[in-house]
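Structure in, sequence out. Go:
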């Protein structure tokens, strides 16, 4: 095959396979935690689950900070595969630990080592920033939003398929094979295949990297430099607030569906995760449609935020499984904001800074959530007996707040539409 062909043509199989593996792991972990925390007292069980999830998620978010920055800098020096390959090593090893925990029946606390191993190798922050950097350097500014959301679409379809199958695979076991071992084994195997693919078959378009370096000298008229910095700051603020809303709401939702009145099992958990992955497809279709109608990126972000704010607000009052899926259906466009914000950021920085910019965005999400995750957990535990859905209303409020910075970016960009950018040789 021609090594100079576009890298985005080759990144899709990796993204697909890795997300199927991740879906298997998520369902397996969720059900293992539920089984180990089982208690006749439902409130005690919920507190045990949320306490474990809080500690797990905080370690998960804190550990990758330094490794991800180092890997991003290596990637921006031209070694674009490194920020992808190294995290996949962490994925493979940490997912293998869950399998050992299931087979050997180790204490639940052993699983706190999963985010430690995962984070020391850069974690999702490095992996996804590396993928986004590869996609960005191989696409022009005009088509970048669609290219990025197309990668997210592959991610979503894989998550949908993996989540649908995960609940059924978790329930497969025999006298000799413990429940969840088969599902976890498939996750480990798929990550191993992803690691081999990324290390030996993933191809980087070096021509696009050289073109990107050649076009970095841009002469921008009147105030452009300061305007870019302000826009970057506003985009970071908007992304952080929206991530707090989404991550906080989804973390609590993982525990909420396991309690009465929903009281889901492995199959329902898989279907619920699949419903979340389906949003990647609907969001992709929406971006394609809005792009053809010449809708601005900032407007698309706002549409996605409104969709999530309405859906998560309705989730606060969900008491049955059909109501859950109805609430999910309202969030059809909820996955538009993040890839579009990444696209907007990529248009404000140099090509050789894509990696560090994207990884700093991911890490800013993690730092913010180190504060908000325990707050969400405490609020959820305090309102278990009165109104457990209150945390979802809180997520809706954060989403509304995240609309303010992006609307300012839209106004600033519209005001400067008359200016012309001069490309240098």
């Amino acid at each position: 095959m021609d090594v100079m062909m576009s890298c985005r043509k080759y990144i899709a199989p990796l993204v697909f396979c890795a997300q199927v593996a991740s879906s298997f792991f998520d369902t397996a972990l969720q059900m293992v935690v539920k089984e180990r925390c089982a208690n006749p007292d439902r409130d005690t069980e919920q507190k045990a689950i949320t306490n474990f999830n809080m500690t797990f998620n905080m370690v998960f978010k804190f550990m990758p900070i330094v490794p991800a920055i180092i890997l991003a800098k290596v990637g921006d020096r031209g070694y674009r595969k490194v920020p992808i390959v190294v995290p996949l090593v962490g994925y493979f090893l940490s997912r293998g630990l869950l399998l050992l925990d299931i087979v050997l029946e180790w204490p639940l606390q052993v699983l706190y080592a999963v985010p430690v191993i995962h984070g020391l190798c850069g974690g999702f922050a490095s992996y996804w920033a590396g993928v986004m950097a590869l996609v960005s350097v191989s696409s022009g500014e005009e088509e970048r939003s669609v290219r990025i959301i197309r990668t997210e679409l592959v991610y979503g379809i894989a998550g949908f398929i993996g989540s649908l199958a995960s609940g059924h695979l978790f329930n497969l076991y025999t006298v000799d094979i413990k429940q969840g071992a088969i599902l976890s084994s498939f996750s480990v195997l798929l990550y191993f295949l992803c690691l081999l693919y990324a290390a030996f078959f993933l191809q980087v378009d070096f021509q696009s990297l050289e073109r990107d370096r050649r076009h970095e000298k841009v002469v921008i008229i009147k105030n452009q430099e300061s305007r870019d910095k302000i826009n970057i700051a506003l985009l970071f603020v908007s992304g952080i607030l929206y991530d707090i809303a989404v991550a906080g709401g989804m973390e609590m939702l993982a525990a909420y569906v396991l309690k009465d009145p929903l009281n889901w099992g492995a199959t329902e958990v898989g279907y619920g995760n699949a419903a979340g992955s389906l949003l990647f497809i609907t969001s992709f279709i929406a971006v394609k449609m809005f792009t053809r109608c010449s809708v601005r990126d900032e407007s698309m972000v706002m549409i996605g935020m409104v969709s999530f704010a309405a859906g998560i607000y309705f989730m606060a009052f969900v008491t049955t499984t059909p109501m859950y899926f109805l609430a999910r259906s309202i969030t059809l466009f909820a996955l538009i904001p993040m890839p579009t914000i990444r696209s907007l950021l990529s248009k404000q920085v140099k090509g050789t800074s894509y990696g560090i910019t994207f990884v700093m965005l991911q890490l800013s999400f993690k730092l913010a959530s180190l504060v908000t995750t325990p707050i969400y957990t405490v609020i959820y535990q305090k309102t278990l007996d009165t109104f457990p859905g209150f945390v979802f209303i809180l997520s809706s409020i954060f989403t509304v707040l995240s609309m303010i910075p992006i609307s300012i970016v839209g106004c600033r960009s519209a005001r400067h539409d008359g200016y012309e950018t001069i490309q240098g040789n």
